[in-house]
Each structure stands twice: as structure tokens, then as C-alpha cells.
Fold this protein.
Amino acid sequence: MQEFPRYLYRAPFVVTGNGRVIADGAVLTENGLVAAVGSYADLKDVDAQVEDYEGHVITPALVNCHAHLELSYLAGLPGDCPAPGDMVGWIRGLLAARAAHGDVAAQNDASLMALARLYAGGCRAVADIGNREESGLIGGGFKTEVLFFLELLGLCGDSENAALAALAGIDADVRCTAHAPYSAGSALIRALKARAGHALFPMHVAESAQEVEFLRTGSGPFADFLTERGVPVAAFTPPGMGAVRYLDSLGVLDKHTLCVHSVHVEDDEISLLATRGAAVCICPGSNRFMGVGVAPVQKMLAHGIPLVLGTDSLASNPHLSLWWEMQVLREDHPDLPPEVVFAMASVNGARLLGIEDRIGALAPGVSSSLLAVRCPAKTEAEVLDYLTSIGTEISLEWLE
Ligand SMILES: [Zn+2]
């Protein structure tokens, strides 16, 4: 008996992550890695233990490019937006719920359960944003890799200065990022981006019309809310432009910047994102929950902007499932090719997080922790259509 058994996983279909579907496909694994991918006919003579997955499709693991595991304990607690798109109203609910549920141990338990839920849904890596540095430890020992980013806020005056002072004391190996253009001032955003260097820099950008109103005029619901919170809004000089154009004016848009949400962007801002090489993380489920609108995905694709998918947190999404995100994305954009949608949930995300050599595609040399998804499809065309529209009805098991 070999010390490291080789397995040949066979299924009616194998999906590579790049949109390729192989009928009567097979994946040869060895020493924890994929050794070969192809048709069963081509691979059947290799010396390996055959595992037959009739009625399934074998896919790469999925990658979630935006979540807040730290907010998992607030699942459902902020409630719905008071009105569609009223993000400020929802944030008020979030802060009230947070104040009423301060037990850190219970919060950590909820984060761990959320991480287990992601794994059960086939997610192998997640870019996670939190406000407590210790939340960066949450992924230890889990098979779903957590790339944690400590998020800083401080719009102007004392709050921005305090964030800058705190930043100076954070260990260099902790990834840090800014929350959003309406909650982090220009000096803080610039300092965080400079600190990130050539590493990924995710930031919430243009999520709601209320955000853009505040950036353009300095007034509206966000101004009222910040004033209520004691932020000296008069000390903030509104840039008088949309969120993407504003970030570009700060010099922080480049190929390492990940603009999360990006729902309310003008056509010229889409061109700007493309010119700078910035990527966009679409969060269809959260956007639907908040009623903030639908991101201009087709235009972004036409401009060649790298697109990935994120769930956001359980506080703004009843599900923590990339299958749900794919389903909502296709409902919002019925013309999107299913292979493009599947790539957003798998190989595109892995590429963005810098782990594509290990996860997200199905190719020789990547991790052999793959998914066997129950799938009734009879033709190659039906397979990706099924995978990107089944949502939370998905039934899968890990091959590893
Ligand atoms: Zn978020």
C-alpha cells in the first residue's frame, strides 16, 4: 500500500473554475494536491483508488472576498433597513444592537459558528474585516483560511487623529484598512493605503446613495447621523464628488485596491476604476437586503474590471453562502454568463487574495480539497447554470 494514496475522483462533470466543463471528468490527486484533470477516459488507467461521484459535479473550492465574522452575533438583530436604501437607519439599528449585546465570549462563539458555516458551504478562504485586533485570531485551526483586516475609522478632528495615533502602535504584520470614505478622513485613508503598500487594500466604496450625497454635499442623513455621534462634521470638507473619484483624488486607487459594493458609481468612475486597475467586490445579497440598489456589473465587466464576490456580514445578509450570492447576482443580471459568475466566486477571488496557486481553480498543483456538488444537470451547459442559480438549496461534500 502506498504511503500517500492517489485518488481518482470521477463525476459526470468536472468544472475547472475558469468556465470549462469536462463531461465524464476525473481529477487525480496525490499528496494533497491535484495531479491531473481531464476526461475519465484519459485518466482511467492511472494507478489510483477510484472514487465515483455519480450525480455530482466536482468543482474547486469557493472564495469569499468580503465578510465581517465579528458581526455574526448580530445576525438579524439590526433588523431590515427602515426604508429601502436607508443605510444610516440600518447603522443606527446596528449600533443599538451592538450596545445591547456586549458579551465578547458570545460574540467570538458566533464568529466561529459563522466560519464553520462558510466551510460547510464550500468556502475555503475569506477576506474578513473586523474592528478588534484579536478577531484576527479567529481562523486559527480552521480549514477555511481567514485573511483578517483590522478596519480603522475616524473622519476628522480628534477621531481621525486618534485613529492615526492608534495606527502607529499596531504591529506591522497586522493588515489594516479604512472603513469607508464617509467614516475615515483623507489623512487616515492615505496613511492606511501607504502602510498597505502592495498588499490588498479593501474598502467599502459607494455602497449607498446616502454616502454619495454626503461626499458631494456634506449634508443629508449621514451628516445628521455623524453629528448625533459627536463627530464635528463641519470640520470635514466634503470632496464634492463621488466616492471613486474622491479616492482617486487621494491617490489610493490602484491594482491592489478592492472597492467593496461600488453600487453608486458614475460611468466616468467605472472608467477610472478600470484605468487604475482596481478590483470590485460585489455583495449582491447584502445590497438586496439593504435595498441600496444593484451594482453596474455589466459595465464593469465591459471595462475589464476584476470582479469578485463577498457575502458581507450576517447583520446585513440572512445567508453566509457564496451560492446565494451567485443566485442573487444572476437574478439581478439575467444576462451574465454563468461561467463569469462562477469565476467571481472561485478563481477570481483566489487570484485577488493571492492564493490562486492553491485554491479557487481546478488545475495541477492546487490543493486537492475540492467540492463534490450534487447536481442533476444532464448537459455541460446545464451544469454552470445549475451551480449559479441553486443558491441555498446546494448540497455538497468536501473531497479532501
Ligand atoms: Zn462590509
In short: Residues 66, 68, 129, 204, 260, 312 surround zinc ion (CB under 6 Å). The chain is about 35% helix and 20% strand. The radius of gyration is 22 Å.
